[in-house]
Amino acid sequence: MPKAIQRASRPPPRASRSATGPLPSCGDSPVYLDADFLLGPEAAHLNLSGVSGLATKTSAVEFLLASIFAHFPAHKGRVAAVCFNVKGPDLCFLDQPGDLSDQDRQRYERLGVPSTPFERVQLYAPLKADGVNLNTLRTHADLVGDVEPLTWGLQEVVDYAEVLLNRDDIDAKADAFIDFLRDRVLGRTFDDGFGTTHRVQTFADLDRLFRSIFDGLEITAGGRSDTWRTHHIATMRKVRNRLLNISTRCKGLVTDDGPSSDLPWKEFQDRTVYVIDIANVDPLGQDLVFARVVSKLREQLERRELGVDAVVVFVDELNKYAPGDGPDTYVKKMLLDISERGRYLGLVLFGAEQFRSQVHRRVVGNAGTQIFGRMDMDELATPGYQVLTPATKSKLATLPIGELMVRHPHFTQPIFIRFPKPPVLRGRDGVERFPPAADVPFEDAVVRQLVRLDRRVRPNQVKDLIAEREQDDVRRALAAVRRTRPDDVLAYFRKVLGARVDAESNRPREHQAVPPLNPISDEPY
Fold first, then answer.
1. What is the mean pLDDT of each run of 10 residues along the chain (525 residues)?
2. How far is residue 400's CA from residue 422's CA, in Å, rounded to a whole number?
3. Domain locations in the chain?
4. Could you say which architecture CATH assigns to the domain 3-150+261-432?
């Protein structure tokens, strides 16, 4: 290692090294980060800042993850990564090879990092509003089979009502009623007090419970009673409207009455990247995904039942999700909690943003390792960069693509490095090479998903089965097949779908999906 670099860094013990990349102008000497200070327990978290498109923040994270997977010592445990894709197709093709130059391949060889895509990648994306087409740009026929639907029901989202409801609108009485539903009703056999027993597991079940209660009050008290189990009917109507609206506002991610499809909780695999594509999901749905996934990660890491010992969570656009000003949203509080207490659990935040000065200071301040790409001069003039010399600021303002400045506990001063191009297909290149397929009609989408699970399935067989069936029934059967993965897909699909009832003898169907709500105000909730 050149003497200038030796003076700037105190190389960590080889057993805890994680290579970051060769230096651009000091030969090709690798610079190492200490795994104990990058992934814990001594310190943890990494923050990347830089101008959009010029700082190569996403590429830097891809390279760092590849290096961690290659160098993280096996005796320290198992490690995985959960990456939220929030911009276009950025992280949709991590399992596809990119174009590398011979020089980059030589760098990878010197660093001891494979110049190949990630071996184990699992991709998840919500469905579109039709309930069968995936809401992602990775829908090319050759690749869409590797994308798992991400759909949740009432049981999965009720614990995160705070994320989905307007806190100015939900008062203490409404909170108390939501807690009552969560603790005493959901997932249990429950008597509504009017002679009907319910088992509430879906939004449709919840709607039936509310209707039964309101009808019971109307019949037994002649409409004069305004309370049920100490809860005022106005509070109950408000909670009903707000909760049942969740499945409408997050349609495709949240299902009215179908089975859920989730991440492999308690079965996370070592050196695996889990990509959750929410780039095309509305902000409310994104907040729900962030809140639930990270909360589940923390909960299972704390209990040591996730399947791995450490998880790197990559979140881009911290300016949006953890701003320095504005209200304390559920997502912001969650990111603050990871930054301040995550390292004890093995929950590590890799966060990126364009303007570091606009991110909550407790999020960036708790990052043990900080990386800077090309920066805007106005950003460098803010107080947070006063520790840098004028020469360092000038260099940051003119950094070429692929060069970064690193600050790390083992470095006595910032070090400039160059990292090789990631060996994975960039998002925009992936869309060109694998153009997204257009949405297909409902029956064709069902056929495609069943054939993907079992090549023995014949399209005509499926179309005959679902002809004249209610789409909600078909969606539920399809979701059950995806969740169960039976040996005989068609037979199981037929069994779950059930026998067809002749139209002449078909009585009016009991309400299955949540109907449109009568508006009670102009609020979007």
1. 46 52 54 88 91 80 93 91 94 93 89 93 93 91 90 88 73 87 90 89 89 88 78 90 86 82 94 96 90 94 95 93 85 90 92 91 91 90 89 90 88 87 91 91 87 87 88 84 86 82 42 44 38
2. 16
3. 3-150+261-432, 155-249, 440-497
4. 3-Layer(aba) Sandwich (3.40)
